[in-house]
């Protein structure tokens, strides 16, 4: 999974039938120090409790569909957890090793 | 899924048999602020209503085939929704945190 | 799928048994304006008619195997169409919007 | 698989039911010379013995779920081995060849 | 598949049971002109004959497991061919086209 932050919402009237009733949120992936990193993704809210501003983790690729109650759906990103606590070790202070 | 914009069309006479009859569009992925980001992809139009210039979201990887009426097809990107409304929160104004 | 151009061939005597008899080509992915972009890939020729210099589109990930007559094969990129016509809209002339 | 180093832990009270009881760790992918490279991922600890600071290798995408005792889970990264020894050849000293 | 070169070996005592007996090698992906490009990966040796220094091609994602005798394994990269001959066309000399 990847760490991300919910940064928005998206509404689509025309969509494939098997996506009806699923809530989608815009999620910004985060770097090691919690900063935005890369393109945002449109993720299904599989925990059904995520809201704007929250830090979450999301699953990508094939396994995202396993997070839904109906698994044969065209979904490739799903929010599967809301982060309560995160501990990340500081980057080592050692200077960069020479190329091996 | 990823946000994108339909930027073109592609015609192929020679293709694998299981792709006959499927409409393909060129889709440009978008960054957080709606700008082109990265390489365009060739996506199947699973909503059958997407046209040039429209903002859409598309599914990638294995799950794209789930968007089609026939799911055992060699398709890895499919347009599954046409965006009506998009709300993205502004980037936080806080200055970059020190490395944790 | 992704747009690419056939740029070469590869011969391997030692390979896994389920790849015998499949033709592989070196494919260079293309950017929006048709320029080489990123690392080339080794793709199975599922249309069986692609040759050096041609613009094609190829499928990646799990779905590539669906393009083959035998689908339980360790293949993750396959050429599925030869491009006859491609129309890509010009990049919008509007200047870059400020970050939202 | 990819080489990585365990750099932290994450706690989520709200998560999808099929993730209950699985330990997740923050893993930093490593470059050829063992330096942090790219965004960290949230990986399930399939060996159940990995701890902070250890070098491990992890599997991504669909196959991560195969590392778990229950395979129909929304997991896309799993730690599957703890590295005891690693030997990587030095980068060749030859100067960069001209573009072919 | 992707072109790569075997650059090392890795030993892991603690690993998930379904990886016992599989040989893993460190593989460096290669650019169009045969130079190292991107992060190395840990790949299963499905041809069982690859050795350090050899140019190979490897399959990624879900299909890697199809290269193994036991396919329900948590493997996402596998060496499936040893390259004997490689012909890559030179980059076109035409100057960069204007943006379409």
Walkthrough of the structure:
5 copies of one chain form a homopentamer. Chain A is mostly beta strands and 100 residues long. Chain A has one domain (2-82): EutN/Ccml (OB fold (Dihydrolipoamide Acetyltransferase, E2P)). Chain A is 0% helix and 43% strand. The first copy, chain A, is built from no helices and 5 strands. Chain A has strands at 2-15, 24-29, 41-45, 55-60, 77-88. Chain A has a 5-stranded mixed beta barrel. The radius of gyration of chain A is 16 Å and the shape is elongated.
CATH architecture of chain A: Beta Barrel
Helix share of residues of chain A?
under 10%
What Rg of chain A do the Cα atoms give?
A: 16 Å
What would you call the structural class of chain A?
A: mainly beta
- For the record, the CATH class of chain A is Mainly Beta
Strand segment tally of chain A = 5
In CATH terms, the superfamily of chain A is: EutN/Ccml
Estimate the global geometry of chain A from the Cα principal axes.
elongated
Largest sheet of chain A: 5 strands, mixed, barrel
Major protein interface = A-B, 42 and 40 residues
Biggest sheet strand order of chain A reads: 1-2-3-5-4
What is the CATH topology classification name of chain A? OB fold (Dihydrolipoamide Acetyltransferase, E2P)
> Please, how many domains of chain A?
1
């Amino acid at each position: 999974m990847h760490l991300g932050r919910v940064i928005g919402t998206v509404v689509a009237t025309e969509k494939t039938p098997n996506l009806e009733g699923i809530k989608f949120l815009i999620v910004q992936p985060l770097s090691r120090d919690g900063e935005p990193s890369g393109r945002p993704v449109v993720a299904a809210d599989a925990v059904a409790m995520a809201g704007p501003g929250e830090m979450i983790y999301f699953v990508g690729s094939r396994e995202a569909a396993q997070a839904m109650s109906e698994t044969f759906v065209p979904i490739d990103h799903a929010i599967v957890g809301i982060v309560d606590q995160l501990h990340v070790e500081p980057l080592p202070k050692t200077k960069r090793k020479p190329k091996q």
